[in-house]
Design a protein that fits this description.
- The structure is a single chain.
- The chain contains twelve helices and 22 strands.
- It has 461 residues and is of the alpha+beta class.
- The longest helix has 20 residues.
- It is globular and about 65 Å long.
- The two termini are 28 Å apart.
- The mean pLDDT is 93.
- It binds flavin-adenine dinucleotide.
Length: 461
């Protein structure tokens, strides 16, 4: 579709949760608004990762990654863990206040239920006995309520939302915006040889759009800062080892302070009865995980990440570059993701396929047996080993020899963009939201940021 000269009230760049919930709320508040969404990736039904475990076993680095890009954004095939909390998942509350942030997350949760998520379970840490057990073992359990939609129901919710939105919103898929231009009275987005204009622009390009976001900020002299990256591994164990925790809490966010370096190591993205998957960020293959609500798709394993946060100080500014280099090293040695038994890691030897096949844990991802100590910095590796032993006290068996560690898992943080409490840049009507702003790192915070900005825009019209 050509849009040269088309005028919209609002253009949204990116159709991840941030973009989707901006569009939803704009149309809800003002049904006659002219809204367009430009998305670099495919429409939902065309999103298909070519890895089938048979003909295509590992990442072939598609032009746009079906896992990260397209309607639904990075979250489309995620486990759909919708965390309602200010304790993690972003710092939206620093802009809009804690109460408002929780209200908006609950509002989005209600929409998810209305669009196909009804009947899914909400878990909560309130009143759990595990808080005490964790504290007794130098671990801290963070507070949260988590709705587990599951990869399958998450997809249904997205399909239903799209069916509703496309009646009123113009969607342009496979249309990456190349340039954002300031006009006297609005903004112009350029793609290919075409462009479209708008009065207000919401940029919600997520993690995969981080490099583009950086170039926009440079062009428009919007200040940014970037000083954090989280590095670690994905742990895979028999689900029964963690079932007392996952049955009650589904996802437990646990933090451990290491004795050696006083670094914080934390569990992240826990997938009971789930699978470990590849993730491709700008051509670098890292590891992630998800699980399904439907018992037919469940496995006998649980996986979760153990991550160590690395904060850098001046003069180093490229924290994501540091994380990328470590991930590249694992790709260089293993051709992709490396897997190692915990027992092999502590004995200082590379894993091989025979020892993995003979082990108690059947891997859910075909990764290259290797040696993570050749990839991860010592400080990170020591922290992970310490935490595995700490977790073994609340979930005996975590430190078994056959526990599988996949590496590397890197959590890249988008640079933080200079925006005000309304998530508006120094340019009136230009909003930067979701993970691309550096303010959010989760489905719930990203979605809530979209609702917040849509309400700002419509209330000022
Ligand atoms: C495998 C996986 C599992 C996850 N599981 C969970 C989970 O269970 N719970 C949770 O809270 N979070 C999870 N996350 C994180 C969550 O998906 C993100 O925090 C969330 O999607 C951020 O939403 P967003 O809208 O800000 O960005 P995104 O979802 O990244 O969407 C941004 C969109 O913008 C598009 N885009 C980028 N650049 C351009 C451009 N120049 N022009 C046009 N379009 C562009 C991209 O293609 C993308 O579709 C997971 C992430 C992954 C990768």
């Amino acid at each position: 579709m050509q849009t040269n000269g088309s005028n919209y009230d609002v253009i949204i760049v990116g159709a991840g949760p941030g973009g989707i919930f901006s569009a939803y709320e704009l149309i809800k508040q003002k049904p006659n608004l002219k809204v367009a969404v430009f998305e670099a990736g495919h429409s939902l039904e065309k999103r298909r990762c070519p890895i089938d475990g048979d003909k295509v076993k590992s990442c072939i680095k598609c032009k746009t990654c079906a896992i990260m890009n397209g309607f639904g954004g990075a979250g489309a095939f995620s486990d759909g863990k919708y965390n309602i909390t200010n304790d993690f998942g972003g710092t939206l509350y620093e802009h809009i206040g804690k109460q408002k942030a929780i209200e908006l997350m609950k509002y989005v949760d209600e929409i998810n239920l209305a669009y196909g998520g009804e009947g899914t379970k909400m878990y909560s840490t309130a009143g759990t006995k595990f808080k005490k057990l964790c504290l007794q073992n130098k671990l801290k359990l963070l507070d949260a309520s988590v709705r587990h939609l599951g990869t399958d129901i998450n997809y249904v919710v997205l399909a239903n939302l799209y069916a509703e939105l496309c009646k009123k919103v113009d969607f342009f898929f496979d249309t990456p915006i190349e340039r954002l231009e300031l006009l006297d009275d609005g903004y112009r987005v350029h793609y290919g040889s075409s462009y479209a204009d708008c009065n207000r622009c919401i940029v919600s390009v997520g993690r995969s759009g981080s490099k583009w976001m950086q170039s926009v900020c440079e062009d428009l002299s919007i200040e940014t800062k970037s000083n954090r990256v989280d590095i670690g591994v994905r742990v895979e164990i028999p689900a029964v080892i963690f079932s007392h925790l996952t049955d009650e809490l589904y996802e437990s966010k646990i933090v451990y302070r290491t004795e050696k370096f006083e670094d914080n190591v934390r569990t992240f993205c826990m997938n009971p009865y789930g699978i470990v998957v590849n993730e491709n960020t700008n051509g670098i293959v890292t590891v992630n995980g998800h699980s399904y609500e439907d018992p037919e798709h469940q496995t006998e394993n649980t996986n979760f990440a153990l991550l160590v946060a690395k904060h850098f100080s001046e003069p180093f500014k490229d924290s994501n570059g540091y994380g990328e280099s470590i991930a590249r090293l694992s790709n260089m040695l293993g051709g992709g993701v490396i897997v190692q038994r915990f027992g092999d890691l502590v004995r200082g030897r590379r894993s091989n396929s025979t020892r993995i096949e003979e082990g108690l844990v059947t891997p859910t991802l075909a990764a290259t047996p290797g040696d993570l100590s050749l990839v991860l910095p010592k400080r990170v590796l020591d922290g992970i080993i310490e935490m595995i032993y700490a977790l073994d006290k609340i979930a005996p068996g975590t430190a078994n020899d056959d526990t599988l560690l996949y590496g590397v898992e890197v959590k890249f943080y988008n640079m933080e963009v200079d925006i005000d409490d309304n998530l508006e840049t120094k340019y009136k009507g230009l909003y930067i939201i979701g993970d691309g702003s550096g303010v959010t790192h989760s489905l719930s915070h990203a979605s809530a940021s979209g609702v917040h900005v849509a309400r700002q825009i419509t209330s000022n019209m």
